[in-house]
Amino acid sequence: MKIRQLSLVALLSAYAAGGFAADAPAPAKTMPVGAQEWISYLSDFTRNGDMLADPKKFLGALAVVSEPQFVFDATRAMMEPNLYLQSTASLMDPRAYGNFAKAVDPAVIAAWITALTDPQFIAATETVLADPGKLMRWVMAPLDPKLLGLAANALNPNVYLRWAATPLDPKVLNMATAPINPNWYGAWLGGMANPQAYGPALGALMRAPYAMQPMPMLPMLVPQPAK
Q1: Dihedral of CA 189/194/195/199: which sign?
Q2: Is 172:166 a contact under the CB 8 Å cutoff?
Q3: What is the DSSP string of 143-210?
Q4: Cα–Cα separations (whole angstroms), residue 131 to 60, 68, 138
Q5: Cα–Cα distances in Å, from 83 out to 35, 40, 45, 62, 78?
Q6: Range of the domain at 61
Q7: Is residue 225 part of a domain?
Q8: CA 169, CA 167: separation in Å to the nearest integer?
Q9: How many domains does the chain contain in total?
Q10: Which of 1, 41, 99, 161 is most buried per CB count within 10 Å?
Q11: Is the pTM of this model over 0.85?
Q12: CA distance 91 to 191
């Protein structure tokens, strides 16, 4: 396991040191650590767009989500209503606009086109997906005790009781009342007008001097009374 992780880190480091790394946008935050942090990260619509805005982060996420242990942990988390409440609340958060706006920035699209034609990126992706140790772990996945635990959790009555009590959760009330709050719309409009909500290309365009200049106004001629 340690040898596989070290080889993956070395491969990603070598890829990051390539010419493409200079053109890729810098990630805003560090990578998550552990299955629970990855589940929280991928279900958070205020920051999971970083994975799509940076090919190196995408490779790191691909290495994690393609593991059978992550699939087991994510499936167990999806059985709980709390994950859906947090994910839906993040989708209604005004910061979610900037999360997706950065991912569709022209500079990010150009970086992805460069990455898809970069042999180092292709080799790194193939290494992540065709890892013999990972394939063996998938073959042994049906014998994993966590799989039996998932089946037992699906038969647990407490899981269904928690789902039945979800409409009474204060988070549901907060999400239901958000669309009738005028400040909620103001926050979304403010996020759309914020240059930091966009990627490097659109953000720089919105911060350009001419973008902040007011429209020139012609002097108004006021007729003077005759003397």
Answers
A1: negative
A2: yes
A3: G-HHHHHHHHHHT-HHHHHHHHTGGGSHHHHHHHHGGG-HHHHHHHHHHHH-GGGS-HHHHHHHTSGG
A4: 14, 13, 11
A5: 14, 8, 12, 21, 6
A6: 2-200
A7: no
A8: 6
A9: 1
A10: 99
A11: no
A12: 14
User: What pLDDT, on the 0 to 100 scale, is given for residue 208?
Assistant: 62
Residue 227 lies in a domain: no
Segment among 57-66, 105-114, 215-224 with least mean pLDDT: 215-224
Could you tell me which residues come within 8 angstroms of residue 130 by beta carbon, excluding any fewer than 6 positions away? none
Which amino acid is present at 94?
P
Among 66, 64, 68, residue whose Cα is nearest residue 33: 64
Report residue 145 CA to chain centroid gap.
30
Alpha-carbon 120 to chain mean position: 23
The span from the CA of 55 to the CA of 61, in Å, is: 10
Helix, strand, or coil here: 1? Answer: coil
- Whether residue 146 lies inside any domain: the answer is yes
Q: What angle do CA 46, 52, 53 make, to 5 degrees?
A: 85
Among 128, 126, 124, smallest CA distance to 16 is for: 124
- pLDDT higher than 70, residue 60: yes
